[in-house]
Amino acid sequence: xxxxxxxxxxxxxxxxxxxxxxxxxxxFAGLSAEDQAQLAxxxxxxxxxxxxxxxxxxxxxxxxxxxATNLRIDGRDRLVPMATEESSVVAAVCNAxxxxxxxxxxxxxxxxxxxxxxxxxTGVSDPQHARVRILERLDDIRAMCDACDPVLVKLGGGxxxxxxxxxxxxxxxxxITHLIVDTRDAMGANAVNxxxxxxxxxxxxxxxxxxxxxILSNLADRRLARARCVWPLDAxxxxxxxxxxxxxxxxxxxxxxxxxxxxxxxxxxxxxxxxATGNDTRAVEAGAHAYAARGGRYxxxxxxxxxxxxxxxxxxxxxxxxxxxxxxxxxxxxxxLGLKILGVxxxxxxxxxxxxxxxxQNFSALKALATTGIQKGHMALHAQNxxxxxxxxxxxxxxxTQVLVAKGLVRMDVxxxxxxxxxxx
Length: 425
Ligand code: NAD
Hints:
This protein is of the alpha+beta class. The protein folds into 4 domains: 39 residues, no CATH class; 196 residues, 3-hydroxy-3-methylglutaryl-coenzyme A Reductase, Chain A, domain 2 (Alpha-Beta Complex); 104 residues, Hydroxymethylglutaryl-CoA reductase, class I/II, NAD/NADP-binding domain (Alpha-Beta Plaits), CATH 3.30.70.420; 48 residues, no CATH class. It is built from 17 helices and 10 strands. Strand 5 and strand 6 form a beta hairpin. The radius of gyration is 25 Å and the shape is globular. The chain starts with 17 loop residues before the first helix and ends with a helix. The protein binds nicotinamide-adenine-dinucleotide (NAD). Nicotinamide-adenine-dinucleotide (NAD) binds next to helix 7 and helix 8.
């Protein structure tokens, strides 16, 4: 064993005070006093709060939050907070929204706020009988689930429906119970997981099988957010632009290689709002991608068409499990502020706004790709990052950015050389 290699086997790390944890990390990784001070600066999330949010907390990772302007959604103007490290994401939404604003903006809707919890049952020789036995217990199941969360029931949520599927797997037949629960203004993972865990022993008893997993499904297809918008032909630059955008969409919908990137662009906007409101980005992303593959082939989350008048019509539909309570939504002060800027009063309202942002993001990406290419818009902002990476500070950042963009050479080596020249001048 190399005795110089520090050990990651640190017993009781979680019990240390934050400052002590930082010290231990500093010893391990050879961090300077300056590095440690950087870790200790937690910005707008107090260390005390953060320390209660996750285990082994040592610092925060601040991400810029911007506000998307020009959005008119269901007849109401909104400023939408977006937390993202990627340049051009906020600008893209603002641009798409500006081009649709005068025509009325976005119209949204939602299929409901129901989540699905799954209970896996194995080891039954007669799965069809087991399935029917479980379905017979609907009233018992309803009562047990609702008893788990009286707060939710009081708010009009709670158990809604029961589905039981027999699944043919490599490990033999499995009986999968779906508890369908209206979680109202909560994302609902904890709420439905508690119900699934409570119910599982009863399912095992009723069927003489063995229950294994008890967890929500992120394929929240009973919680679909939808948005539609029409971009007038003259606002987008004419029929050639429209047709090139449609062709780009047809490509994405037919080819998973392209659809992955097409949908990644959509999620640039979606995840940024999800994060800015303290919601679970991974849950929404998993749901979106699973939904995009629901037809058996991974495809586009959006659809684009030409209206009878020749305008460009876009629609989006995707699962949107977000909440106004639970998780970090109420705990993170900036997430609370994000929700305040949005002015939403229900999880449904939030989900619908996020769908509109996803559609706007897709519009801008398609338009850029189908016309000037994505790099033109990206480069101006990317150049700022390169300028900062090259060491530019203060006023130097803008000056160096302008030089890089004018040269059309947004590269580290060029940035370093140009920065040196700027400093000499
Ligand atoms: P939660 O349990 O913290 O809060 C939800 C509870 O708040 C409800 O059960 C209800 O009792 C109460 N409540 C108060 N006001 C409410 C209202 N207006 N509407 C609805 N409920 C209200 O949070 P949660 O939403 O159940 O769980 C979300 C968290 O679970 C997120 O942090 C997520 O990251 C995490 N999580 C996700 C997964 C996953 O996605 N696979 C798995 C486990 C945990």
